[in-house]
Amino acid sequence: AMDFELSKPQKMLQDSVKEFLTRHCGFEKIRELMETDTAHDAELWEGLTDQGWVALTLPEEYEGLELGAVDLVAVTEAMGSFTMPGPFLSNTWASDLIAASGNEAFAKEVLPVVADGEKKVTVALLEESGSWDPNQCALSVTEDNGSFKLTGEKLFVPDAEVADLILVVGRLGDDLAVVSLAQGADGLTVEPMSAMDATRKLYKVSLDGAVSDTLVARGKEAEEALHRATRLATVAVCGELVGGMQWVLDTTVEYAKTREQFGRVIGSFQAVQHHCADILYFLESARSAAYYAAWAVSVDDPGADLAVSVAKAYCSDAARVVGNHGIQAHGGIGFTWEHDLHLFYKRAKSNEILFGDATYHRDLISAMVID
Question: Closest Cα partner for 44 from 13, 66, 14, 23?
């Protein structure tokens, strides 16, 4: 049986994340970080590390907290209600990929230093096609005397400038391969790409014969590790979308209660009430889908992939609709730079695309259901 309430420890975990971000990640701070090259703040990262959140889902043997997908979603929901900037999500995706890779020697070497905040990791997956399907990866990996040469280009790589290691997904013969490349390696060029959400920076990573001696995984192991890590990261994004929608609801209701027009508060007008009611409806449905998917992943339910695609498709669409309602209810101030709504709107839009949009996941769903 599944309990739809968070457990006491999970609620405490979520509250502690909210308290921490209230103190260290207000909107003034977020706007400051948006203006920087990387949106990464060393002090904020140290705080996240001290709490163990950077290694939330990593096994204990690698200094992680070894918590599950539901705990992760409780945390990202809190982070989503702040549009927390920086590399948390990409680092989680990449470190979970290493943990799932079956390459114990590499995991032992890298994950403890990721857990204590000394190193950050990211994944370079997308290419010209823009497809989230790893089978579409064409980047060339060639083996030569135990080292691996990378040639090609990766796009929209999150936080590539602050990552110490970039896990490059490519093609080694017929096999999918994941190769770890250190920042500053010869033949590696990292250039900023423009992105809608300035709280999370994206980069073009060009590989001109860059050489690595670390093959993280190849073939079935690489496919499975990438699948597991991406599935967990997708659920984390759903949590974040839910947190953002909650913020839009709270802010919109508060505004409706206080803003006066024609001598009465706008919350008394039915049109504004409809906006608020619609936001609540989409938010609660999205929350149910996100936490169900997280539960399915945490117990490795046979329907987990389906649950995750349903959640991602629904949350992606819902967050956009909720953002629209929020802006409508706020009227003119809703689309100004001064108001914080646009931070959530842009984060929702970038999260909508991250790990595949609703259309991508509906295609996956139809393939799973027809099979």
Answer: 23
Residue among 166, 191, 155, 162 nearest 87 (CA) = 162
Rounded Cα–Cα distance for residues 197 and 178 (Å): 27
Distances (CA, A) of 97 to 41, 144, 366: 24, 25, 26
Phi, psi dihedral angles at 153 (to 5 degrees): -135, 135
Sign of the Cα torsion 361, 363, 367, 369 reads positive
What is the pTM for the complete model shown?
0.97
Q: Is the per-residue pLDDT at 290 higher than 90?
A: yes
C-alpha separations of 109 from 99, 106, 170 in Å? 11, 5, 22
End-to-end CA distance of the chain: give it in Å, rounded: 27
As given in the structure block, the two tokens for residue 118 are: 């000394």
Rounded-to-integer distance, Cα 204 and Cα 202, Å? 7
Is pLDDT at 2 greater than 60 in this prediction?
Answer: no
Joined together, the tokens standing for residue 360 give 């991508």
Q: What are phi and psi of 354, to 5 degrees?
A: -60, 130
Burial class from Cβ neighbours inside 10 Å (0-12, 13-18, 19+) for residue 279 reads buried
Dihedrals φ, ψ of 190, to 5°?
-115, 115
Burial-class residue 340 by CB neighbours within 10 Å (0-12, 13-18, 19+). Answer: middle
Residue type, position 2, single letter = M
